[in-house]
Fold each of these.
Amino acid sequence: MTGTDAAPTRRRPTLDEIRSWPPTVNAERAALALGVSRAYAYQCIKNGIFPARTVAVGKRIVVLTSSILAILEEEAGPQS
């Protein structure tokens, strides 16, 4: 299989990169940060079990970047 045959892999962003994001992001970007698929993120949002805080903006659902950071910083533990 050549490089063009494989599906592109998106790298999970670092905490510093996420800190530079706007206050809200779409579910796809939040899923990437949390290490889950886009489809799973939407399923969790629909079922009310997505770990990050979501807000409806019209028909769109956005995720608060601060809530993504809180989850990931807790997961990372105290910094030395």
Amino acid sequence: MNTAHIDTKPVDLADVITGPVDTGPASQLDMYPTPVAALLQRAHHRLLTGGWCKDALVNEDGARCMLGAIRIEARGHSGLEADAAAVLLEAIRRKFGDGVDSVPSFNDAHGAGRLPLRVVDEAASLADARGL
């Protein structure tokens, strides 16, 4: 049977192949020396360990969305929070195009946290590369 005519969507292997999550020791959380990159790294770790959610900054189980994790890790530094959210939105748009309106809309468009967590980690690397 020839199935070449069937239109299929490519599969990202990172979404299919799973394994144990190694969060590393707490001393490695601030591996980036710059404040925005370190904040995004802490937010990523918070999402890994505390859980990811959608449609709320924090759900009844304590899981957080991307922006909720940034907000709690910014510890009241609104300027740092805004800078981290801006870098995160840029990382999202680099990967998924300018059609993404906001960090919350990207977060809430997903049924699982694997991709949002990956993008937070990539945003931390982007912030570090820029010295932010």
Amino acid sequence: MKKVVLSILLTFSMLHSGEISIAVAANVSYAIEVLKKEFNVIYPETKVQVILGSSGKLTAQIRHGAPYGLFMSANMKYPEVLYSEKIAVTKPVVYAQGALAYLSVKKQDFSAGTMFLKEDNIKKIAIANPQTAPYGIAAVEALKNANVYDAVKEKFVYGESISQTVAYATTAADIGLIAKSSLFSPQMAHFKEGIHWSDVNETLYTPIAQGMVILKRAESNSEVKAFYDFMLSDKAKAIMKNFGYKVP
């Protein structure tokens, strides 16, 4: 971990003024480029450097001194911990609410709900690692509440982030439980609702409220504050809705 953090510190030490670094949960990777583009319409001189990863791993990097200015997590837990430890200087706010979806490259019958995961033709199920990824926690919770977890847990293939889980769902597994937002990227447009993907029943898991905080090292950085405010604006909320999120 020390080598990783040292590499990050060296990289960011070379960044020039007018460049901000934000740590972003992997599920937002599909929306972040659009968000950056719209932000730069308003603030054309600010370059936004995005570091993507699972929320747990990004939190570990932040605790070890990674020089990020803003943290956009996939849940509220990690920002709340950083705030309680005084590593974050703003109280966590919800910038979006995510949802789970099933995804398969093969045609599936989703009418039976989670029960279809028990079928013999479903041999591998991709989920995000629940130790580091909030969407993995939600997937496990949904399967337990549907009373299928014990029957299917031996089929799990774990992705370290939701982006890796999407990759596994389309290559190494028969189906995946992924962030619904990933389905709204242009690269995923060929997957059809009701054929290749379907919503996971939202009553089966705790709503995935995604939290955001400004970190201590950027406490006086007006450009970080500008991006923070932008993420709470109507423009950013409209973009997030277009990627399948609910917004506050």
